[in-house]
Structures are given as C-alpha cells and as structure tokens.
Automatic annotation (TrEMBL):
Protein name: Transcriptional antiterminator
Keyword Protein biosynthesis applies: no
Domain PRD: 285-392
Organism: Dielma fastidiosa
GO-annotated biological processes: regulation of DNA-templated transcription
Database matches in InterPro entries: BglG_antiterminators (IPR050661), HTH_11 (IPR013196), Mga_HTH (IPR007737), PRD (IPR011608), PRD_sf (IPR036634), WH-like_DNA-bd_sf (IPR036388), WH_DNA-bd_sf (IPR036390)
Keywords: Activator, Repeat, Transcription, Transcription regulation
Length: 487
C-alpha cells in the first residue's frame, strides 16, 4: 500500500495550516470531490496506523493534523519525494508541465514550484522559458504568466491532452523511466499500469497490429492520464475530434479495469492516438511459422500444468489469447522492464508457481526466459482464472498454538493456498471431536503429532509453515483433485 500524489498534496495542505480545514475547502484546493477526500483520508490513516499517526476530523470543525505529529508527517513527505524530484533540466520541465496541467484550475506561484522541486526561483524562471516554448507550439493553449499570481495553462481539454502527449513524445527517449514513474505515482491510483499494457498488447495482436514497445508504453501512459482527468478531475474532451481512426480500442475491458466511462469524444481521441503510433509491419510475415511455434509452447505449458498441478487450462480462451500475444512479443521484441511492480511471487505464490512452468518451455524454443513483467502478467491472468474456477478443498486446522501463532499460520496458509483451500474452521486439540461435525471436510492440518481424527486425512505441519509443509500440502492437492477441478 502506498500514498499517491493527491494524498500527499492533502497532507501538505493540512501541514501548512494550524487550524482545521473544512472538507469542502480542501476538496476545492486539491480539485477533488468530498467523497474522494473521505476515501483519501481513510487510506492515509490506514497507511500511518502503525506509526500512531492520523488526520483528525470533527463534523463541525473539519480536518487537521496535530502539532505533535507534524514533524513525522513532514519527514515522510521528504523521504517519499526523492524518487520524483527532478534530477536534471529535462525532468524539471516534465514535472512542471505536468504539475501545471494537474492544477490548471488555478494559478501556481513560482515560489511554490521552487519549494516543490527543491530549486531556486531563478532556476524555475529559466525552466519556465523552455516550458513557454513548448506550450506555444501546442495549438489552442496559452501559458498565462502573472507577476502576482503565477502561472496557469489556459485552453481546451483536447489541447491539454495533446500537450501531455507532446511532452511524453518529446522527452520519452531520454526520460522514459522518469515519465513512467511519474505517471504511475500520480495518475495510476488503481495500480493498473501493467494490466492495462497487457490488455492493449493482447488486443492489438489479435487484430494483427503490433506497436513498437515504446509506442505501447506511451499509449498506456496516455490512457492513464485520460482516465485520471476523467475520473478524478471530471474533465472530458468537449467536442468531436477526427473520428477516422481505423482502430477501435477494447473500451469495455478498459473501462471495467479503470472503473469509469469514457465519453464518445474521449474514445474518438484515444483511438486517434493509437492510430498515429509507430508500429512494426502488420503481423503477417511468417505467420504460419509463428502460429506453429506458439501452439507448441502453449500445448507444452498446458501439459505441464496438468502433470504438475492437475490443472486443465486448455479450455480457457482468454488465457490462450494472452499466451499467444505474450509469446509473439517475447520472440520478436526487446521489452523494457516496468518499475515498482507488485511482487506477485509473494502475493499470489501458487499462480506464480504455475506461471513459472512456462520458463523452461519458452527458453527451449526462444533461448530466453520470460522477463519479470511477462511472468508477473501471466501470474495475474492465472490468478484470476484460478480464483474464479477452481473448486477449493475444505480444510480445518487443529492447533496447540497460541492465538497469535495460530493467526500467523492461518495467514501463511491463505497466502500460499488461498486459491486451492478454504479454511472452514480452527480448533484447539482438545476440541478435535467437534471438528468432525463439519460437512465435507477434505483435509485436516494439525500442528501436533498427537492430533488424530478417525476417517479423515491429516497432514502434520510445523507451527511456522516450512517448505516441506508446503510441498506435502501441494502433493496432497495434486492427488486429491475434485472432479470439478477441470477448469
């Protein structure tokens, strides 16, 4: 769990005031709704719970941070900013342009920009000269500069979206990693960058269009920016744009993932962006040979999943389509790695273990292993399938452990086997007989060798789950697959 840039801005606003601020005032200052504000404060308080820090609230007074807590909050903001503080002139131009676009509803002072990016007002003033040239080159925009009020970008939403795209294209070759980090940190509040990338890649491959990796990364960023402007700032393209684009993005999937609805003008605009992207030749060269290789790899992967885990995956058409696109890109494109990915090996270990079966197979045919991005993406796809289709084994736990150790054991079991097992009950050893009253128990896990219950399969495990324990449980699952396990 992380705090996004909007939530950091909320903390900074409260830190700068000694008195409480009402929700409506805060919402106006950081350009969000009161509902989102309440959600953000709940997220912040959850994040800082272990530090005994929180944002206080009162219906009549508003929201505030206690004076005694301000130093700890300030230290967090300083530490968390390091990754996005511009390290050079290019990054400073990117960050200031993006910041001005985010706050296009008001003027932003030079002093505030200097404080935000830890440079002098003179440096900011010199940077603004370059930014003014970029904005002037963008049709339909004006950079309003006031000695008293500061800076504000004026123009239509369509022109502002184009400015975002222009900045990304202008700097991506040299500063792509910084742009990716900035957009993920500030605009990808639902953490969907990689999933969105994979949706686009799979869909475009299906319709025989192959964007360069750079183009695919850029359109993913542009989609996240449009989603942010749509959902958080309630801003849409106001008028029709060129609708002659020959590509129609899979907006049903995209909107479901991003939890929003794009306007028809937004859709036209995004389709237009994709149509203009640089691409490789249409996927038709040696298509027959590619299909043969792809089918071989997929068939061997499905066979390995069946032999290793008793999983019949071949009936899952979305998985087959995902694998086809992944294999094509793996064999033809050198990928850039995403930054700051969630470690699915830890959060979804079983799905990760199934996905890892692909590595020796694909290396045999292509002489290179999956990248961590590809492995994570396949893990995510498998996790959805496994969660939604497998009939889980019902288990109970017999324990002689303390409450805290029992909770730890339960957490570990859910982590490793949450997609395969349902914990129906936890009983102390002396209540073992009561456990027999459960219907449809498939397995009992016991932390003591003294535990026994006639007529039930029991696996004895350590108080703290070991690798031997997990292998014993996996082996049992493989050999006791319910008939509905075929998915």
């Amino acid at each position: 769990m992380q705090i996004n840039q909007r939530q950091k801005s909320l903390i900074q606003l409260l830190l700068s005031h000694s008195k409480p601020l009402h929700g409506s005032e805060i919402s106006q200052r950081i350009n969000t709704t009161t509902r989102t504000l309440r959600q953000d404060i709940a997220t912040i308080n959850t994040f800082f719970h272990q530090e005994n820090l929180q944002i206080y609230s009162n219906p009549s007074k508003g929201y505030w941070i206690e004076e005694n807590d301000k130093t700890a909050f300030i230290n967090y903001i300083k530490e968390s900013k390091n990754d996005l503080i511009p390290a050079n002139q290019n990054q400073r131009e990117i960050a200031i342009c993006f910041y001005l676009l985010e706050h296009d509803y008001e003027y932003t002072s030079m002093g505030l920009l200097a404080d935000l990016f830890y440079v002098s007002k003179t440096t900011i003033s010199n940077t603004i000269k370059h930014i003014e040239e970029i904005v002037m080159a963008s049709k339909g925009l004006q950079l309003s500069i006031s000695a008293k009020k500061g800076l504000q970008i004026l123009g239509s939403e369509y022109a502002k979206r184009n400015l975002y795209s222009s900045i990304i294209l202008l700097f991506y070759e040299l500063e792509g990693a910084y742009i990716n980090r900035y957009i993920v940190e500030n605009y990808d509040e639902l953490h969907n960058f990689e999933t969105l990338y994979q949706i686009l890649m799979s869909y475009l491959t299906q319709i025989k269009i192959m964007l360069t990796n750079k183009s695919l990364m850029i359109i993913t960023n542009e989609l996240l920016i449009s989603a942010y402007r749509n959902r958080i700032q309630q801003k849409n393209i106001e008028a029709a744009v060129d609708s002659s684009a020959s590509i129609d993005l899979p907006f049903d999937d995209i909107e479901r993932l991003l939890k929003l609805k794009f306007s028809e003008y937004d859709k036209q605009y995004l389709n237009q962006l994709v149509a203009k992207k640089r691409r490789y030749n249409a996927i038709n060269t040696n298509e027959e040979a590619i299909d043969v290789l792809t089918n071989k790899i997929i068939d061997e992967f499905y066979e390995a999943a069946l032999l290793s885990f008793g999983l019949q995956l071949h009936q899952q058409q979305p998985l087959t389509e995902h694998l086809s696109a992944m294999i094509y890109y793996h064999t033809t494109v050198t990928h850039s790695e995403f930054n700051d990915l969630i470690n699915l090996k830890l959060t979804h270990p079983f799905a990760y273990q199934v996905a890892s079966l692909m590595n020796p197979i694909i290396k045999k045919y292509t002489d290179k292993l999956l990248t961590e991005n590809e492995l994570n993406s396949l893990t995510a796809r498998l996790s959805v399938i496994l969660d939604g289709n497998i009939k889980k084994l019902n288990i109970i736990i017999l324990t002689d452990l303390s409450t805290s150790l029992t909770e730890l054991l339960k957490t570990e079991l859910n982590l490793y086997f949450g997609q395969l097992l349902t914990i129906s009950g936890i009983y102390p050893l002396y209540r073992a007989a009561a456990a027999a009253n459960h219907d449809q128990i498939d397995l009992i896990l016991a932390t003591s060798r003294e535990a026994s219950l006639q007529g039930y399969d029991i696996i004895h495990i350590s108080p703290v789950l070991t690798m031997d324990d997990t292998m014993k449980i996996f082996a049992y699952i493989r050999n006791h697959v319910p008939s509905s396990r075929c998915i």
